[in-house]
What we know:
With 803 residues, the protein is an alpha+beta fold. It has 18 helices and 40 strands.
Amino acid sequence: MNTTLPSQASVVVIGGGVMGCSTLYHLAKEGVDDAILLERNQLTSGTTWHSAAQVRALRSTRNLTDLIRYSVSLYASLEKETGQATGWISKGSLSIATNQERLTHIKRQESLARLFGVPAQSISRDEALERWPLMNGDDVIGAVWSPDDGRVSPSDLCSALVKGAKSHGAKIFENTGVTGILTNGGKIVGVETDKGTVKCDAIALCTGLWSRTAGAMAGAQIPVWSCEHFYLLTKPIEGISGNIPTLSDHDNHLYIRDDSGGLLVGCFEPTGKAIDPDRLGDDFAFQLLPEDWDHFEPMMMNALHRLPALETAEVKMLLNGPESFTPDGSFLLGETAETKGLFLGCGMNSVGVATGGGAGMALAHCIINGHTPVDLHEADPKRFPDCFNSVEALCHRVPEVLGKHYEITFPGRQMSTSRGLRKTPLHDKWEKEKAHFGQFYGWERPLYFEKSAEPMMTFGKPDWFDQVGREVAQAHDKAAIFDQSTFGKIEVEGKHAARFLNRICANNMDRKPGRAIYTAMLNERGGIESDLTAIRIADDHFRLFVGTTAIRRDMAWLKQHLGDEQVSLRDSTQDYAVIGLMGPDAAEIAKSVGAPELNDLKYFEAGPAYIAGAHVRAVRMSYVGEAGWEITCKAENASKVYDALHQQGALPAGIFAQSAMRIEKRFLAYGHDLDTDISPLQAGLDFAVAWDTDFIGKMALEKQRDVGEVNRVVTIVLNDETAVPLGNEPVYFDGRIAGKTTSAAYGYRVGRPVIIADCSREEARIEGARVEVDIAGELYCGQVTLRPAFDPKGQKMRPPSSK
Ligand SMILES: Cc1cc2nc3c(=O)[nH]c(=O)nc-3n(C[C@H](O)[C@H](O)[C@H](O)COP(=O)(O)OP(=O)(O)OC[C@H]3O[C@@H](n4cnc5c(N)ncnc54)[C@H](O)[C@@H]3O)c2cc1C
């Protein structure tokens, strides 16, 4: 290893676990030959060395799955490249189900695998027993077999990555702790270490469970906390010879594999044990935490049930090692919002070894190119509000995240800890209306109302089905109120506001004050970074309404792209409430509350009014396909505006109703139907592209237009009224995969399940094309339509009475 620190490096990787080693390797391979890695102890000495190191490819999205597939091919090929073996063993993995809902869950995963091109196949209990004869299969009702999964030796893997990195010029410094991060004008300029200062342009923070403290050195908010994680090791057991597949018994919270002729039985118990990373200390190297048999006992009982051979096995140890978790169970990869050049590759949530190869590649790509190779919004460090970075919120949340790692991901599933962090100005009203809340970016938002009990978790017809139907009917037949206060709001002010926004946004923003404009901010590749609505309030003042979870990311994007324009940017999210008043009675209600002028507003026109004495600004627009207004008022006035509308007969409706209605109307949602890899042309949003303005991404869009890129988004209406599509399912045309569903819901106004899908095959994008959607292994027939499933064109608000 090297001894003299350079005074300068273009990139400094902090942390020598699998994430740091993989990032360094990929940086060096991509030509960053002066990159260095600083590890305060020894390589792998944090969490990586004691990892169970299973590599199971299938994740919830294609891009996360592809990261692991990349890992698999890297781990299998590194020896040839570097001469250092990685210990890659590919014996496959077996997931068993012991109840119907789990069977549906693993069958949904099998369908996803088909969509992503990952080999996986449903097998019977007997076939599962053939592959895993040591297991008690009495309660097993089905299984899915994934032949390509495997495992690796984490230390050997890191040695191979480091050897590869060094061969391309990278340098590694062990026993070199980073004690400070140097910034200037919001940019990384260097690191301080116990061996001296190194100037640099970028940092890859791969500091595992210590990342919250490490990030704080640069003032970054990194919501990562650790939990104890257990696995049992036995001495050799009869019946185990050579390597066997990994067994996943998630109903019993267990994973099981062979280890040196014995068994390794790991668990994600229902509630984990959080541990303060600072308690571990800086010199926590190659160390473990104390065994805790009391905590492990319920898991031991489960393991004894599944593995009768354990009864007589000799226990080697109960290994207890700390691992890092984030508030939503997904890792952090990418640049921070606040500090240019500070890139995160941490918070790996127990998949660091499996994902490390691909994640290191993606992080290196991001550092070199300014963006990840594919959309990875699930891992974007900008997806958390500050409130999740508190010790209290993290301590309560991460044990639940660990516990949910193997839980069935039912639709509508919510976290129960660290709730109530952010409340909208109408929260008390919603509590009185018996709202069932969901958490979005820390905010509590009503999913539906009139909740009588905790909703049952199911893949079938949900127990809130009728209530949501009533809320949709209210919006369709009378008038409903939707709380949209959590929209991110950004004030763009200054004499160059229009000029700036015209460069950043694809639509023409230079409209007269009083206009609302739907637009998208694009990257240089033409992909959608964000879609938003702007209101031009004055010549020099726009208010942008962005997605609830997009505010930090969008603010960062705007700041990053601000040039020499005289413009100020301010996050005003908390200052305003947004109340959606939608439905045919809206006109009459507006008149009754003393705001008849709202009826004079044309579509996408905004104007001021007074409701219950409070100043409001309303835009004639609708996300649900019923005519109405989105009414913005000061947060402190929200209650009286709501009361006035409510007294005139408008009733609350929740997110589930809104979502079902927007899918029927085919309004696309960011994170579902839109992301950074899809362009306005591919999403059918070319109506919001002003070709005569110059905006970021225009050249890429022009190229797409010239090669005939077309709208890939279609609506599918399923024939079977009882089908429950959820999104992320394969769509088949003529027996071959034609695309995937991106949003789905029951369409109450059309009386059928309705889907928005991204169809790559042209034959499936024809009006009336008959397609099939694979929902947990069952094929459901449906018709493609290029129009919205429900289009209330011509359906207007009832005109207000002349009284
Ligand atoms: C018991 C157990 C079983 C697991 N099983 C699996 C599995 O089967 N499959 C899987 O994919 N994952 C598994 N994991 C998770 C996986 O091991 C981790 O996600 C992964 O090792 C994390 O790697 P890392 O590089 O992010 O962190 P680490 O390996 O912890 O590396 C971070 C490094 O940063 C260094 N550092 C911190 N601060 C500084 C500083 N200021 N200056 C310099 N250096 C610093 C630390 O010393 C440490 O070496 C398991 C984890 C545990 C605990």
